[in-house]
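Could you please consider the sequence and fold appended to this message?
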Amino acid sequence: MAKTKKKLDTVVKLGLGVFFGFCIMIAVGTFLTRPDRSIPPYSIGSQVGTAVAVHVPTRTRDPEIESLIYRFRKVGRETREFGLMKIWPTTPGDPEGRYRDITIYIFGHDSWAEPESLHRYVAALASETGEDHSFREAFEQAVRGFYRLEDDEEEGRIGPLIGEEETPGTAASARVLFKGPLTAVPLDAPDGTARSPSPLPASSRY
C-alpha cells in the first residue's frame, strides 16, 4: 500500500517563507549597496567652510582620480547635491543652495586630508608669513586632484596646484581637465569618456 505524502505543517511553511524572504532581502540589499567600481574608493577627511579634503588610497592612479573629478563635475552640473558624495553642505542656509560654492582637494596621503591640515591651509591662504607660505606650498604640492565649483564657474585639475615656482617635474604631472562656465562645453566626450585634458599654463593658479 502506497504511503500518503505528509503535508508540511503550517508553522514549517511559515518558517520556510520567512527564511527565503530573508535570503532575497539580503541578496537585493547586497546588490543595491555594492561599491561603485567606476570611481576609486575615497573618504572625506575634513571640511572647513567651502573647502573639502578627500583621501584616496596611495596606489590610486591618475586616470582613476580623473574619473572621481568628473563624477564631482557630473553631480555639480546635474543636481549640485554633493551629499550623495558624502559631503556635508558647504553653504548651509544659503538661499541659492547648500552647495553653491565648493572646493575639493584630493590627496593620496591621509595626513593632508586631516582637519588640522585643512584648517591650517585655509588660514594660511590669508597669511603672508614665511611659515604659512611654506605650508601652503607643501599642501598644494601634495594635491593629487582638484575640483572647484563657484556659482556657475567650474574647474578640474590633476596633479599638484603649481604656481610661478614650478619645476619640470610638477609641470609634467599637472593638467587642467576643464575650466570655465558650466554651460561652456559638454559634460563628456561623445563616446562617454572624459574630455581630453589640456596642459596647465605655467602662470596659472587656481
About this structure: The beta strands are 43-48, 51-55, 101-107, 143-150, 153-158, 175-181, 198-199. DSSP finds five helices and seven strands in the chain. The chain has one domain: 43-199. The helical segments are 10-32, 62-78, 115-124, 130-142, 168-173.
